[in-house]
Write a structure and sequence with these properties.
287 residues; binds adenosine-5'-triphosphate; 10 helices; 4-stranded antiparallel beta sheet; 33% helix; Ribosomal Protein S5, domain 2; alpha+beta; 2 domains; Alpha-Beta Plaits
Length: 287
């Protein structure tokens, strides 16, 4: 049996450039991995793919992205034996943190090892793109700008180190609903180039100033508690705050360790799920 870590991501920026004729949105997003992670366990089976999960809201059949990743790899590489996939979920579900995509990416990396396939990360990312557009980024982890549907990846320097406070209100958000409610002509675009420059120069203040997410107003309109959470996080002392992905999770940066407990305890008072984690920043390498 082998295991693989599946870290969550946050969006430092998320921009929507246009709606494509195929119905997908053309996006540009800078993402980075944080040390809040699921752990997946892979156990060889004679045949078939089974899924077990510690979280009852996660599907345990072919709707699970980890199941789809295993199935695709099996078919592509003509593997006849099976696998039991156990998901120890720590990443909140439907939260804007790419939990499912990261489980699928970790399944690809792990099965590559378990089945001795010898595929590169680039090849695994290409396979992952067939299942979901956040999966290629999750295959590599670290920090990157994703464009196209999200599947074209360019690696970037790790952000300046800081604490990341994550707070998920007790609501779930469907990514499709948020994109559906987006008026592309009315978007306030984040400064993606400015964020890239902040990362290149490891400028913490500039990174904080350049945070931006084009989906945030849409989710906030539907769920006003997201705006309240952002305000509270700033009030308790976070340096900068933003909603991740399509939400509803809000994250805040805190540079000084002495401030972390204050923000964490303040949020814990009224938000059920709060985490204080570190950036991971660096890319994942094949074991
Ligand atoms: P993203 O940020 O990529 O939009 P998310 O964090 O908002 O993703 P996920 O946690 O990946 O959302 O889950 C979204 C939906 O996908 C869930 O409601 C669930 O039904 C389904 N799903 C499929 N596989 C998984 C998985 N391994 N873990 C969690 N959810 C999964």
């Amino acid at each position: 049996m082998i295991s693989e870590k599946a870290p969550a991501k946050i969006n430092l920026t998320l921009d929507v450039l246009q709606k494509r004729p195929d119905g997908y949105h053309e996006v540009e997003m800078i993402m980075t991995t944080v040390d809040l992670a699921d752990r997946i366990w892979l156990k060889p089976l004679d045949r078939g793919i089974t899924i077990r999960s510690s979280e009852r809201y996660v599907p345990n059949d072919k709707r699970n992205l980890a199941w789809q990743a295993a199935d695709l790899l099996r078919k592509t590489c003509h593997i006849s034996h099976g696998v039991e996939i156990t998901l120890d979920k720590n990443i909140p579900v439907a939260a804007g943190l790419a939990g499912g995509s990261s489980d699928a990416a970790a399944t690809l990396r792990g099965l590559n090892r378990l089945w001795n396939l010898g595929l590169t990360l680039d090849e695994l990312a290409e396979l992952g793109a067939q299942i979901g557009s956040d999966i290629p980024f999750c295959v590599y982890g670290g920090t990157a700008i994703a464009s196209g549907r999200g599947e074209q990846i360019r690696h970037l320097p790790a952000p300046p180190n800081c604490w990341v406070l994550l707070a998920k209100p007790a609501i779930s958000v469907s990514t499709a609903d948020i994109y559906g409610g987006l008026d592309v002509s009315a978007i306030r675009h984040p400064d993606t180039a400015g964020m890239m420059a902040a990362l290149e120069t490891a400028d913490y203040g500039a990174m904080c100033r350049q945070l931006g997410n084009a989906l945030e107003p849409v989710t906030m309109q539907l769920h006003p508690q997201v705006a309240v959470l952002k305000e509270q996080m700033l009030k308790f002392g976070a340096d900068a705050v933003l909603m991740s992905g399509s939400g509803p999770t809000v994250f805040g940066f805190v540079q000084h360790e002495s401030q972390v407990a204050r923000v964490y305890n303040g949020l814990k008072g009224f938000c059920p799920e709060v985490y204080a984690v570190r950036m991971m920043g660096e890319r994942i390498h094949l074991a």
